[in-house]
Design goal:
79 residues, mainly alpha, two-stranded antiparallel sheet, 4 helices
Length: 79
Amino acid sequence: MPHDPLADLSKQLILRYGPTIGGQDLYTALGFKTYAAFHRSQQRQALGVHVFKLPGRRGWFALSVDIATWLMKQSNSQS
């Protein structure tokens, strides 16, 4: 069975955070040190992942799988 780093990372994120990541976990996973930096990038539509609101919840969320995919693309683009 071949090793699939994307599937491994997706599984790790889902096990830790569930299907969605929000709040400090979201901006930290995307490499931002502060919410303000995350928010500025989000306003410029430069996050690289789709973020969304959930009814009855505060803040922004992203799918764990989308974050894993984005992180792998960033890692591969540096090679």
